[in-house]
Design goal:
Blueprint lengths: L9 H4 L10 E6 L7 H8 L6 E2 L3 E6 L8 H7 L3 E6 L3 E9 L17 E6 L3 E9 L13 H4 L1 H7 L4 H12 L21 H9 L4 H8 L13 H9 L3 H13 L5 H13 L12 H47 L1 H13 L3 H20 L3 H14 L4 H7 L6
Length: 401
């Protein structure tokens, strides 16, 4: 049974079925409990070449497609899934126990096939973060993997909703939301994203300018996001003795792998305010416009920096040039002999070095008001080398004054 008003992600999740492909990568991971031998055999029936263990299923396709349904695999076996394809489709899925995650928490952030969607089963909530870019816009070799994204699940179970906002922001970046739509509550602590959340933002390919503008409205992170051992100890000490006894029994039975997440979620709920909407609600169009303005400002700043750097390099080159010309003026007679020596080699390389030296001598002469003298010497060089067409062609590029 599905929660009323929540979106069905099923249509997206059977992606790529029946099409030829160049590259597809599937990875699933079981977190809360290992797979049984029977379950592993069921998965093997879906793929003979997949790598399957008690906790993971991975496969790469260069031709053909996966026969199974990723959505059904998440319903039955796994707690996390990543899919990437070279044509731009990317999917990150999380399965959460319903007793620890209320679907209503995600409702304000749900979008469509581009962004964040949700489906519920009897025991679980399945969240899907999805991207569908044009081919060639995604480099899978740089894509964050499941290991980098998986900590987001623990954060969600502990009450950290920041990843949900990133899912909504993906739909903004993709242009799939109306400009008049109002921004949902911005969770606290988004100005300093964790490594996993930063990986998720990159996985969702959220424009950095849009990300910076959007996260600016986030309240400062309360201590709940990273409570100290002392704070946790004080909270545990205050629990009723009978309740603590019951918790210890559950721990000793070893049947509740999520007990720690359950307690941490309870601790955070008791000590932290819920995400709140900005005092001046922003619209999707406002976010996009602010991101555009920020981008133009940053581009202008970069161009100014580049212009200053170019001017600095040009000044340095001019100083080096002036120093070289002053040194050349001090040994002008020797330099004319060097020109003759370079031309005498009868080699293209020697010609080029001699021509450059000759041009520098011309600049020295013009600065000293002896341009006519320099032109006369160039004419003599042409006459002396009249039977060297390669050299004469190069001398054409030397101004006589």
């Amino acid at each position: 049974m599905e929660e009323p008003g929540l979106q069905d992600a099923g249509q997206l999740l059977d992606y790529a079925t029946g099409s030829m492909s160049e590259y597809q990568y599937y990875e699933f991971q079981a977190v809360d409990r290992p797979l049984t031998s029977k379950e592993q055999a069921e998965l093997r029936a879906l793929s003979t070449r997949a790598e399957i263990s008690a906790t993971r299923f991975t496969n790469v396709y260069h031709y053909g497609d996966f026969k199974g349904s990723p959505h059904q695999m998440m319903e039955r076996y796994f707690d996390a899934h990543v899919y990437t394809a070279n044509w731009g489709t990317r999917v990150f899925m999380l399965r959460l126990p319903r007793k620890l995650f209320d679907p209503k928490l995600a409702a304000p952030y749900l979008t469509d096939e581009q962004g964040l969607s949700l489906q519920t089963t009897r025991e679980h909530v399945i969240l899907t973060f999805a991207v569908q870019d044009e081919a060639g816009e995604w480099d899978d070799m740089e894509a964050p993997g499941l290991a980098e994204l998986l900590p987001v699940r623990s954060d969600l179970l502990a009450g950290d909703l920041r990843c949900l906002y990133l899912g909504w922001l993906r739909a903004v970046a993709a242009g799939h939301l109306d400009d008049k739509e109002v921004e949902p509550p911005v969770p606290p602590g988004m100005k300093s994203l964790s490594g996993a959340l930063d990986s998720l933002a990159r996985f969702l390919d959220i424009d950095l300018d849009l990300l910076q503008v959007a996260l600016a409205a986030s309240p400062e992170a309360p201590a709940r996001l990273s409570p100290s051992r002392e704070v946790l100890a004080a909270w545990v000490k205050a629990l009723p003795l009978r309740e603590k006894d019951a918790l210890l029994v559950r721990l000793m039975e070893g049947q509740d792998s999520l007990l720690g997440a359950e307690l941490l979620q309870r601790f955070r709920k008791e000590r932290a305010p819920a995400p709140r909407a900005p005092t001046s609600p922003r619209t999707v169009g406002g976010l996009r416009e602010a991101a555009r303005v920020l981008h133009e400002r940053q581009v202008k700043r970069v161009m100014q920096m580049q212009a200053r750097e170019q001017a600095r390099r040009e000044r340095e080159l001019a100083e080096v040039r002036e120093k070289a010309l002053r040194a050349l003026a001090a040994r002008e007679s020797a330099a004319w002999n060097e020109v003759d020596a370079h031309f005498a080699t009868r080699k293209p390389g020697g010609y080029d070095v001699g021509i450059q030296l000759l041009k520098d001598l011309g600049e020295v002469a013009r600065r000293q008001g002896r341009a006519a003298e320099f032109s006369a010497r160039v004419r003599i060089l042409r006459e002396l080398n009249a039977r060297r067409p390669a050299l004469l062609a190069r001398l054409e590029g030397v101004e006589e004054g």
